[in-house]
Automatic annotation (TrEMBL):
Transmembrane intervals: 9-26, 127-146, 167-191, 216-239, 274-301, 321-347
Keywords for the protein's UniProt record, in alphabetical order: Cell inner membrane, Cell membrane, Membrane, Transmembrane, Transmembrane helix, Transport
Family affiliation: Belongs to the binding-protein-dependent transport system permease family.
Subcellular location: Cell inner membrane; Cell membrane
Recorded topology in the membrane: Multi-pass membrane protein
Short name of any one Pfam family annotated for the protein: BPD_transp_1
GO biological process, one term: microcin transport
Protein's name in the database: Microcin C transport system permease protein
Lineage, top ranks: Bacteria, Pseudomonadati, Pseudomonadota, Alphaproteobacteria, Rhodobacterales
Domain ABC transmembrane type-1: 125-344
């Protein structure tokens, strides 16, 4: 197992480099970069800026021709922007410099927020972790009992209509379900039961400890339900199929032949083996909910988390935030993959990845 883990850890380095290289290359061809963003803002200043900068046709030089809308701006201004953002260096040098900084977890500062990327991620992360953790726990609390029930009553009308409901739930995109929840329960057109946006109320600081807990749960209910819908469906079917596979094995027939009660057979023997894949998949499911739904759900419910941060950084072409969060997320995903393998081994010591790798 030690050699297998060492290989997996060593593979993280080339995998991360590949992820960063692909995304860095793509950004070289995407229009509307950070300099274009600033040029657009400056052009909004109109003649005021041109008078300050010297006006006239000074901006018709070669330095401005590369940037759409830069006509009328002095080439010295564009050159200064290039130096400030590091675009005066060749792409290869910029990429290698970025990798060296990221290996030391030096992600620099946001170009448009005047705050370090690390501090920005730490500030936004609790919201996304909260959303992902509650959604994953809710999915497990609902899916495991429902999946077991469906396996025990396989082929019955209960199994049929619950499967239909699960498939419909899986087919509905999380963001569309979030909009539906807002329309129904957040004052859209029907009931004003839950708040429309945010994670806390305006009077949060004045609430008691118990009041803060209730206020927090009140705000997080709709986002968590919207994030849970897809993972709930997948986990339910996974639990059912895992139980069906175990129920039909020889040791279950032997236990029944010995006269053991059905409940003891189900929860004393089948449950432990059937839950191996479900329990071991917890890290991956959490990461999937954490990354998969956070952008749209956080945007719809105005939650200031990592998903919304990434969306705003992409719109603004804030490359330090984009690449910094991409590096962190990629590293987390690779480490969670290793953690999932370790969880499999802890839950079932019979699993030997070393022999499989050989």
């Amino acid at each position: 197992m030690g050699a297998y883990l060492l290989r997996r850890l060593l593979l993280i380095i080339p995998t991360l480099i590949g992820i960063m290289l692909v995304n860095f290359t793509l950004t070289q061809f995407v229009p509307g970069g950070p300099i274009e963003q600033i040029v657009a803002r400056v052009q909004g200043e109109g003649d005021v800026f041109r008078n300050i900068a010297g006006g006239g046709d000074a901006g018709q030089g070669a330095s401005t021709e590369r940037y759409a809308g830069a006509q009328g701006l002095p080439p010295e201004f564009i050159a200064e922007l290039e130096r400030e953002f590091g675009f005066d260096k060749p792409p290869v040098q910029r990429f290698l410099s970025m990798l060296w900084d990221y290996l030391r977890f030096d992600f620099g500062e946001s170009w448009f927020r005047s705050i370090s990327v690390v501090d920005l991620v730490i500030e936004k992360m609790p919201v996304s972790i909260t959303l992902g953790l509650w959604s994953t726990l809710l999915a497990y609390l609902i899916s495991i009992p429902l999946g077991i029930r469906k396996a025990v009553r396989d082929g019955t009308p209960f199994d049929t209509w619950t499967s239909s409901a699960v498939i419909v739930g899986y087919a509905i995109p999380g963001f569309l379900f979030a909009v539906l929840l807002m329309v129904l329960f957040a004052g859209g057109s029907y009931w004003q039961i839950f708040p429309l946006r945010g994670l806390t109320s305006d009077n949060w600081e004045t609430l008691s400890a118990w009041g803060k807990v209730k206020d927090y749960l009140w705000h997080i209910t709709l986002p968590v339900i919207a994030s849970t819908i897809a993972s709930f469906a997948t986990l339910t079917l996974l639990t059912k199929n895992s139980f069906l596979d175990e129920i039909n094995k020889q040791y279950v027939m032997t236990a029944r032949a010995k006269g053991l009660a059905e409940r003891r057979v189900l929860y004393g023997h089948v449950f432990r083996n059937a839950m191996l894949i479900v329990i071991a998949g917890f890290p991956s499911l959490f990461l999937g909910v954490f990354f998969g739904s956070s952008i749209l759900i956080e945007t719809i419910f105005s939650l200031d988390g990592l998903g919304r941060l990434g969306f705003e950084a992409a719109v603004q072409r804030d490359y330090p935030v984009i690449f910094g969060t991409l590096y962190v997320f990629g590293l987390m995903g690779l480490l969670v993959g290793i953690l999932s393998d370790l969880t499999y081994v802890l839950v079932d010591p019979r699993i030997d990845f070393e022999s499989r790798a050989g």
